[in-house]
Here is the input.
Amino acid sequence: MNPTELPSLPGLHHVSAICGDPQRNLDFYVGLLGLRLVKKTVNFDDPGSYHLYYGDAVGSPGTLMTFFAWTQVPPLATAQGRTGANQIASVTFAVPDGSLSFWVDRLADRAVDFEGPKTRHDEVFLAVKDPDGMTVHLVERGPVGGEGDWAGGTVPEAHRIQRVDGIAMIVRDRSATEAFLRERMGFRRLGPKGDVTRLALGEGRAESRLDLVADPEAPSGRMGRGAIHHVAWRAATEQDEARWREALVEAGYGVTDMRDRRYFQSIYFHEPAGVLFEIATDGPGFLVDEEPGELGSSLALPPWLEARRASIRARLPEVVNRHLR
Here is the structure.
């Protein structure tokens, strides 16, 4: 399995985490951070719970943050996640250059606790916890760009989040994971800073960063509210994804079959430390079942769940986007 012989992975597709109250989650990511709710659907593997997608105006790959809402049956509904070893610890969003002062004022005005500005890898960032305790970083990264503003945006375009810049992973043994990322997936090493090694995938505005944090003494992480469940990397087409699946299987990795996620096709596997990775296709995208101006406005279900709409809807709490202008 040589990444130079495989289709390139252009960067990060999305990051998926677990939340509790979906309304509180929406109020934070749409109302405070200014992302767009691009799809309100359900977890296809557990249709009794929401799967919320946030991103740019059209839900472009690389801008997506998604959440599985655990609200139904204890202990899941009450389980708090714990950040620890062999787990994704944080997600970083890129904002335009010169925007951090806007974000400092915005967070302070809304009485949201944050840390920073702080410095890492010669860049300045802010750190904030979302309502379930997940760590979110904001870092200045380049000019304004992307798919532009939309009617319901809560943050001015000059300061709004551009994309998901990357993630940080805590691992007890950095060597095996770094070797996999570089030799199997084609990541580049940007350099170490103490106990953190920064890697990158993709180029230009699509470049995604992955910080490997080495901590041999870290306690084990635990899934639950506020924990990041997995990260997905982009494949341009289904054919590219199929070639990656074949290569991973030949290299001895346990890989799922290709799964229809309605808005993209996916395969899943674990990297050497046990963190769940996904490779997701760029298409067909989020406009397959809603018009651009209607994204996220209603409960979207895939065709195979449509006959169960009434019973599914009855199990879900009401979630309202109160932040449209």
